[in-house]
Here is the input.
Amino acid sequence: MAIVTSSTSQISPANERVYHQSGLIGDWKGNWAGNNQAVGFKVVNIRGARAQIEYTHNGYTERGIGEVNGATISYGNVTVGTKDGKNLVLLFSSGVGKQSATLQKQAAPGSDSILMGSWGGYSADIGKSASFRVLAINGKEATVSVTTDGITRQGTGYVYRNVIMFGQSQISTDDGQSGKIIYQVGSKSFTVPVTKYPPADSSSSVDRTA
Here is the structure.
């Protein structure tokens, strides 16, 4: 049975509609309002009510699990939140000591273009096939069509580095040629290795995905 890796984000569609939690994911950097010292906060992924984070302050980095509460994440004495997905407010509170900082989201490295195209594959281990068509990418949003367990869903996915998340499924690739689709059904997660099909102007543009 395949499991979801620690780098996988699982944000429920309901929470995304209300709180836009995917906007929290990313690398944020800024300075404390009082002393202008550098501070950073990185949200690696969000899985339900837990977030894998990295908190950099005073020259060193803490790594741990934060608690997701609606549109905010709390980690120890720190709480962060964003309204626009571009600027992050960070509040530190310990007894009578309070500090605040405004952080900016850093540009993700790499090109989103490697995700463009039609992907498909089959896993003999679990006996399942899946396909993921990336029709367009506009910033952090992607127009996608996903087929898992014979059901096709279309809509807008969230792009982060070399990953596109859409509902209970996601696709990731390191080289733009091969990758994997991870999707969830109930409490079970399935991983299907996939490859990118040739572009439509090649000799054969038939979508062979199941």
